Amino acid sequence: MSFVDKYVIKKLNEADIEINGSRDWDITVYDNSCLRRIVTHGSMALGETYVEKLWDAPRVDQVIDKIHLASHGDIQNTIPALASKFYGKFVNQQTRSRSKTVGEQHYDIGNDFYEKMLDKRMLYTCAYWKDADNLDQAQENKLQLIGQKLQLEPGMRLLDLGCGWGGAAGYFAETFGVEVLGVTISKEQAIWGQQKNQHLPVEIRHCDYRDVQNETKKFDRVVSIGLMEHVGPKNYQSLIEIVKQSLTPDGLALLHTIGRKTEDKVTDPWFTTYIFPNGYLPSLAQFARAVNDTMVIEDIHNIGNHYDRTLLAWYDNFVAHWDQFKDQYPDNFFRMWEYYLLASAGSFRARHQQLWQVVLSPDGVIGGYESVR
To answer: What is the pLDDT of residue 44?
Structure first.
């Protein structure tokens, strides 16, 4: 056994993970070369070698949870991590031309696939499981919570930046009686959303979120549910400026985004290579600096603990319906998405990643803003 193999085994043992052990979070190694790759290429190799079937575990989510809790989740000095840090420091990875990539490579892979994995409204962000025992109810709880935080009232105009398949837009129109304009970078999402909401005062546009600057009429409310993860740190301030420019003086905005504890220019190389091209998770400090004196932060609510259960619900649906899709996708697709969903669940369980709902106002709510939970 080489020194490198012994080093990896030592680190795994520190996380209470044994090689060829019998517990759900123990891993079976089929090829020791994966251990050496993990030392030099960190999280990139951890994901790649799983997809290549060089190691396995009964519960990948528990493996990742253990790794993060042992503080081995951020491997900052591996080759891919250093390259990502250097690249992110000098290059805007979320320009207009680059922003189309995630739509084409991730969101446009098949509406029928997402219909089976997600809830009935096709909501692809963290649900809110308070008083809910199934995914449909938990996602509706999330939308109800957002609607209440935004204090939506009949007749208001709502702008939905990064609207996905338009499920939230449809809910807000039906439940709160508002008129909605939703924008998405995904062609397939726009088609699905427009068809599903054609009976409602909802318009879904296939365009970049920056295109809403051309709107002449102001909106009473702005919501963004899962867009900021694709905006990038070099564009945060311009996003906040767009939100403010779109609002009436007495308006409110809510940004719902995954976030990270630490602030750096490193995006997990495996996730940005195979799942979300050009993605980046903000820190709360980066968010606050982007807002700066442009708007007022009225409320911050962390519901990141609810994402673990959401991801496991998606995973269960993914596995249950895989047989009808396995001939449509590459051979490595199943293990790639299995790792994506379960590793993400483990990361949220360890509280390595967060989910913030941040309420903003243009100049501060007179008399103060009272949030709901």
So the answer is: 92
Q: What's the CA gap between 73 and 279, in Å, rounded?
A: 18
Say which residues have a Cβ less than 8 Å from residue 264's Cβ, sequence separation at least 6: 76, 85
As for how many domains the chain has, the answer is: 2
296: helix, strand or coil: strand
56 three-class SS: strand
Average pLDDT for the chain: 91
* CATH code for the domain in which residue 207 is found: 3.40.50.150
Burial string for 19-54 (b: 16+ CB within 10 Å, else e) reads beeeeebbbebeebebbebbbebbbbbbbbbbbbeb
Query: Does 36 share its domain with 175?
Result: no
Kindly state whether residues 65 and 105 are assigned to the same domain.
Answer: no
In-domain check, residue 343: no
pTM over 0.90: yes
Residue 287's pLDDT is 95
Are the C-beta atoms of residues 340 and 270 closer than 8 Å to each other? no
Q: Tell me: the pLDDT tens digits for 171-213?
A: 999 999 999 999 999 999 999 999 999 999 999 999 999 999 8
- Same domain? For 77 and 103 the reply is no
Which structure tokens are listed for 226? 């899962």
